[in-house]
Amino acid sequence: DCSLWRSAHKNRINMAFKGEDHLDSLPLPVQRMHLIQVDSVQRWMEDLKLMTDCECMCILQSKPISIEKDEQNELILSSQYSTCDNLQLLLKRAWIISTELTRIAQKLEKNRWQRVHSMTVRVNCHVRSMINEYNTFTRNSSEEMHQFEKLLIDKCSEFTAFTERCIQTEDEQILKSMKSCINETLTTIAQYFGQLIELVLTHEAQNLLRQIELSDSVYVTESAISSLFSLTQEGANLCRIIAKEGGVVVLFKICRQDCFRCLYPQTLRTLASICCVEEGMHQLEKVDGILCLADILTDNTHSEATHAEAAAVIAQITSPHLTFTQHLSSFLENMEEIVTALVKLCQEASSGEVFLLASAALANITFFDTMACEILLQLNAMKILLAACSDKRIVDTPYSRDQVVTILANMSVLDQCASEIIQGNGVQLLMEMLFERSSSGNSAEVAACERVQQKSAVTLARLSRDPDVADAAVKLSCIPRLIKLCRSPTERNNSDSVLVACLVALRRLAVMSPDGLEDSDFQQLVKPRLVDSFLLCTNMEESFV
């Protein structure tokens, strides 16, 4: 759960808010893979660059010249990535092998024996190449690792021999009896492969963390942290490995040494990635990570980049959709100074990215503890956030507006909030947010726009208990816009959550200003039970709008 953070930082925050673990949802190095469609000979030429230990004729014979329909989508490595570092090459190999094993299982179900055999030979080659390549650059491999290497190679050879016998017979009964053995062997290969990769990645994480811990060189430490960050982007399992090997402890040691100040942003960015998993959060608590983050945020001698990355860590560990934040008892002890520093960062942000990270941290904190809303009110945060929204250079995306309206929605439960909203022209802003639409059509951006519409309607509904706010909303024509959102599915991107929020807001405003609705709107959207109005609107055709 937690979860895609940056496309720059924007994807990281959006994913955290959607409750997606940005690491769980990422396959190994799929984002760095280039998927291309080529004929069989060219595919062989591409693969050959990564199979230096395989007999060329073996590879050639395993790839039929005729192109089957399903082969058009075969995944291969683009040659432009041949210069990537050793670890990334290993991960690419691992991803290819994992994909091929899945495909073998699919072909086996369809009794495509010729394809099963050719793919088995290819997996055999990839496994051998991966092991040979890794052994050329690794140091101090464990005996356990060598044992799994031998087990995997032996099992792959056995698997190839099995499938070769299958293509040499046409007896259906023999093939049927062999199928269970092949399935069992395939399962064993997948288990050995997974265990070997786990050992390899643990070994590499240990090496990187040892470099970071023992080196006094800024250059060596920077290089190791950069490699460690790359590992964290390859999935939640890698983050768990790094956390279990003491990665959080080692990185916070860097953040407590002045000689490594220039590395703080990079170190904090890596910490934010590791802390998407429960093991990382527990480690953070054990090393007083919250106190360290508070010290960094409140230290004015640090750069804005350092403050922004510290805010990113806060946003990650306080995500309302994570189920393992309850143990962060030390956060409450430091919450006031953290919130104060984040409000200041929002106010002084020099870019949209910095504002996004700071506001996302604040938004998550308002979910984390209700006391945060009272602190924000005391700090005039409402005024600061509303002013930032008028600066298109700072609040420049639906993601940023999503954070702002989240804070407004959570603060709107306080009675004192209404006067702040009116003074800061907040009702006008909420009205504008009801018109939020995606300009790119990107699914993440569309989802952010839906959240902006929903939360702005929720905020209006809560604030409209105050007659002054309700009056301002009516004067700004909020009622016609809410009716439009209820009646037109395309206006709300067919979102049920937006529909419910708009119906509630409309009913609240109708109580304060019943003259603003036509009779048909009142009869359909206000008078019935909420569920009946909801069903009416969800079944409504566009022609009725």
TrEMBL record:
| Residue stretches making up the Protein inscuteable homologue C-terminal domain | 93-545
Any one Gene Ontology MF annotation carried by this entry is: cytoskeletal anchor activity
This entry carries the following GO cellular component terms, namely:
apical cortex
- Cited InterPro entries: ARM-like, ARM-type_fold, Armadillo, Insc_C, INSC_LBD, INSC_LBD_sf, Inscuteable
Q: Where is the Protein inscuteable homologue LGN-binding domain?
A: 36-80
GO BP: apical protein localization; asymmetric cell division; establishment of mitotic spindle orientation; regulation of asymmetric cell division
For this protein, the record's Pfam families field holds: Insc_C, INSC_LBD
Entry-linked SUPFAM superfamilies: ARM repeat
Protein name per its UniProtKB record: INSC protein
